[in-house]
Amino acid sequence: MSAGERWKKYEWRLIRGEPVDPPVNVALDEVLVRRVGSGERPPTLRFWERYRPEVVIGRFQSVSNEVDEEAARREGVDIIRRTTGGGAMFSEPENIITYSVYAPLELVSGMSTVDSYAFLDRWVIETFRSLGIEAYYEPINDISSTNGKIGGAAQARRHGAVLHHAMLSYEMDAAKMLRVLRIGQEKISDKAIKSAEKRVGPLKRQTQLPREEIKERMIETFSRMHTESGLVEDSLSPEEMAEAEELTRTIYGTREWIYSIP
């Protein structure tokens, strides 16, 4: 079965996303991957939106190693933990694009983890190339370009489904990022800020396009490459939202989860 046939055997749903408190997005990943795995929901592409800036740490990281908590409090940055591995990411609502793909495991059957990352994000690479960015996938999970890294992906397979998500830099406040994340620097210097800016190639700087226009181009590319008749516009059901809010209250928004030691 070709790559295109794998995707097009499903009727894909699109959730554009409404702003929610940061940990609710993590809970929604859990809710939707379960529902896709059980067949209660068709395979879905969801974009995250959030009310506040955040640091998202990976499932197997510790807050104390990754975040300057005093700086985070001072800057009004929430700390949350996702359910997938990978590194810590700093994000501000207007400066990041985050999406999740929820699909049956058969979509990636027979693929190695490395191959599945590139396979699940190929539509993103094609989107950026159509915008004039020399984008490419850097194994295992970086979406990069000749002008710097754009974002990183993470993945988990459970409940009979695959959850694959990525955070993409639209713009970056390097000074704030360096204040909040612990990345091994003794102090924040002009040199450190310039070095961080050089390593990252935010989409705004590479395209001069509004964030929403880039998101729409991503949706158009996914629809063209991976569906027969287009993405079906969808929204979270009241039951899905209620379940996510309960999971946030009992797990993903709790100190026990966020500060757990892997």
How many domains would you count in the coordinates? 1
How would the global form be characterised?
globular
Mean pLDDT, to the nearest integer, reads 92
Number of strands: 11
Instruction: Examine the secondary-structure arrangement and name the CATH architecture.
Output: 2-Layer Sandwich
User: H/E order of the elements?
Assistant: HEHEEHHEEEHHEEEEHHHHEHH
CATH class annotation: Alpha Beta
Structural class: alpha/beta
The radius of gyration is 18 Å
Neighbour order of strands in the largest sheet: 7-8-9-10-6-2-1-11
CATH superfamily heading = Bira Bifunctional Protein, Domain 2
Low-confidence stretches: none
Helix content: 40-55%
Strand content: 15-25%
Distance between the termini: 39 Å
Question: In DSSP terms, counting alpha (H) and pi (I) runs of 4 or more, how many helices?
Answer: 12
Largest sheet: 8 strands, mixed
CATH topology (fold) name = BirA Bifunctional Protein, domain 2
What does this structure look like?
- The protein is of the alpha/beta class.
- It has a single domain, classed as Bira Bifunctional Protein, Domain 2 (BirA Bifunctional Protein, domain 2), CATH 3.30.930.
- Helices cover 41% and strands 23% of the residues.
- The protein has twelve helices and eleven strands.
- It has an eight-stranded mixed sheet, sandwiched between helices. A three-stranded mixed sheet has the order 4-3-5, sandwiched between helices.
- Helix 2 packs across helix 11 and helix 6 packs across helix 10.
- The chain is globular, with a radius of gyration of 18 Å.
- It starts with a helix and ends with a helix.
- The relative contact order is 0.19.
